[in-house]
Structures are given as C-alpha cells and as structure tokens.
Amino acid sequence: MAKCLTKLLSKRPSSRLPELYITIEPHTFRRYLMRNVLGVGVSQDKKPEELKKPTLRFIQFLRGNDDRQRLGVVSEDGNTFAELSGGACVSNDFLAFLKQGFSSQELLHKIDRVQCERMNDRLILLPPIINPGKIICVGLNYKGHCDEQNKQPPTDPVFFSKFSNALVGPLDCVVAHNVTKRLDWEVELAVVMNRKCRHVKCKDAMNYVFGYTIAQDISARDWQKRNGGQFFIGKSMDTFCPIGPAVVHRSMIDDPHNLYLKCTVNGEEKQSGNTREMIFRIDELISRLSSFLTLLPGDLILTGTPKGVGMYLKPPQYLKVGDVIQSEIQCVGKMINQVIAP
C-alpha cells in the first residue's frame, strides 16, 4: 500500500490537475495530501496553540519505515492526530478495537489523555478497516443512477458483495488490470457496523452503526455485464475498493441522509449528489440485511452511488493509467487515488 503513495509522490501531479498541482518538495506534498484528505474544515497551518484537538475520527496508519499497524484519531482540520494504540489500552487494529466496546465518552476521555501530534510526512494512511468480515454493496440506490440507465427504481434493495482483497487506502493506487478495458468510478458513503446485528427493526437499526467512511466502488464494467452479469468478478479485483480516509463516529454527523458527495477525475467533476437521494435509507438497509444474515462489528455497507458514472456518459468514459480519482463526502473527508498499470 505504501508503494502506491510513493509512486504518486515521486512525480509531480500533471498540469491537467490544477487543484493538485504544486511545486514543492515531495515530503511537503505528502503532508499536504494528508491534510487535504483528512480535513473537513480549514486545512491551513495554524499556530500550535490554535491547533484543533483530535476527535472521534479514526485512522489506521504506519509511522515511517515501521511496519507496525497503529490506530489513531485525527482532528477535523486534518492538522493534528493522536495515537490511541500506544498506551490507552486500545487495540492497534480497528476491528479488534470495535470489539472492545468503548462508549464515545470513554473514547473522548482516552483522547484527552494521549499525546497530540502535528500531522507529519512520515505517516502513511492505511484503509481504516483492514479486514472486514463483509463488504456489502447496494446497487441502484439513487434515483439519478437509475434514470441514467433508463431503469425504474427497484422495489427491493439490490445487494451484492466485494471481497476484502479489493481494499486499499485513501491515497493508494488503483490497478488497471489487463483483463479489463472498461474501468469505472462510483463514490459511495460506507456504513461501519458497531456490534452484532440480527433481526433488527428499522427504528432500532441506527443504534448498530459505529460510523461512516468513504468508499470508491471501482468497477470493471465489461466483466460486470459479461455472461449475464459477473458482478463478483467485476467488483472484487485487487485494489477495487479504496476506503477512508477515516471512520467518522456517528456522533460527529448530524444527518447521514443529508451529506454532499462528489467524484472528480483529473480535476473534472463527474458525480455530484446528496445522500438524501437514497431510495433505501440506511436504517432500512440494515433492517433488511439483518433479516437474512448476521451483521458483525466492522462489516461495511456501501450505500450506493449518484448519477455520473462513466459507463452511462455520452459517449462512455473509462479510467485509464495515470488518471487521478478524487472522492469526497461532506463531514467525512476526501480520497485521492491514482490509476496505475499492473
């Protein structure tokens, strides 16, 4: 995962990416990227006494050349972070951390007691969840996405899955595998489950949510449509699910059904929508799923994508090697992923 970030930093962003194009040293650019993707507020440098404290925005990361996975929290502006797994009796793995069952108040108390650090160029962001038990996706869950396909909105949720081998981090690269020629983008809000969930009613479903992150549901459209529909193959190739940059605790988001989300490719806006456009809301998705199977801590539910995917543009557009995908959701953050050759 770290190698992809290194590739992105080893070359200056191209001049066709004005929002990323900067003429500064690679380590400074790395720090800029970190703050840019993690921050949901002001990302400019501030005096130490003005720095915001880290809060309930959880990241998994490495420090420099140390390959020990760590768990931490980051401030809303992306300028500061604190490591929780260093001495707060917190696991260094997010999935194991969820199973520890800390309340939000307990976590805030632990954050107050750990050392706060400035964001620095030695941090390497990992996917905030490394090995979830399930990655469940929802198709056709935005009316605009149905309309662009000339399809009627479904009467029941359309569920399919991705596998965890597809996961990469918020600054990692997406591989354009040789077996596909139609690589597409889909920005999505992902729900992170907090505890075991089975036969849950809609009115109780949100109590089982820990928080939210961004997912980019990369899709090989030729395989998705091949032989009557190979969704599993078309959606689960390696690197086909960047997530991050952080898992934002549900208490930090007033209304998950009123968040702006967008996707740009090489600085050009492709998707722009709002989660209020969901056909099936999060509570209904959880309730429906829990009637069929047991949801567990760390399970991910990708809630669908708005209109603007490449396959249904006129003419169709697909990702190619060198393209840079930026995915953004209000109150959650951003991801920047470059497409590379195998």
Helical content band: 10-25%
Parts with pLDDT < 50 across at least 5 consecutive residues = 5-25
| CATH first level of the largest domain | Alpha Beta
- Our estimate of the beta-strand percent is 25-35%
How would you characterize this protein structure?
The protein is of the alpha+beta class. The chain has two domains: 50-125, no CATH class; 135-340, Fumarylacetoacetate hydrolase, domain 2, CATH 3.90.850.10. 20% of the residues lie in helices and 28% in strands. The chain contains nine helices and 19 strands. It has helices at 2-10, 26-38, 94-100, 104-113, 143-147, 202-205, 221-225, 231-235, 282-290; strands spanning 57-63, 66-74, 80-83, 117-118, 123-125, 135-139, 158-162, 167-168, 174-175, 183-184, 187-193, 209-216, 219-220, 241-249, 260-265, 268-274, 300-302, 324-329, 333-340. The strands form three sheets. Strands 1, 2, 3, 4, 5, 6, 7, 8, 11, 12, 14 and 17 form a twelve-stranded mixed β-sheet that branches. The radius of gyration is 19 Å and the shape is globular. The two termini are 14 Å apart. The relative contact order is 0.18. Residues 5-25 have low confidence and may be disordered.
SSE blueprint:
Blueprint: H1 2-10, H2 26-38, E1 57-63, E2 66-74, E3 80-83, H3 94-100, H4 104-113, E4 117-118, E5 123-125, E6 135-139, H5 143-147, E7 158-162, E8 167-168, E9 174-175, E10 183-184, E11 187-193, H6 202-205, E12 209-216, E13 219-220, H7 221-225, H8 231-235, E14 241-249, E15 260-265, E16 268-274, H9 282-290, E17 300-302, E18 324-329, E19 333-340
Parallel strand pairs: 6-17, 8-14, 9-19
Antiparallel strand pairs: 1-2, 1-5, 1-14, 2-3, 3-4, 6-7, 10-13, 11-12, 11-17, 12-14, 15-16, 15-18, 18-19
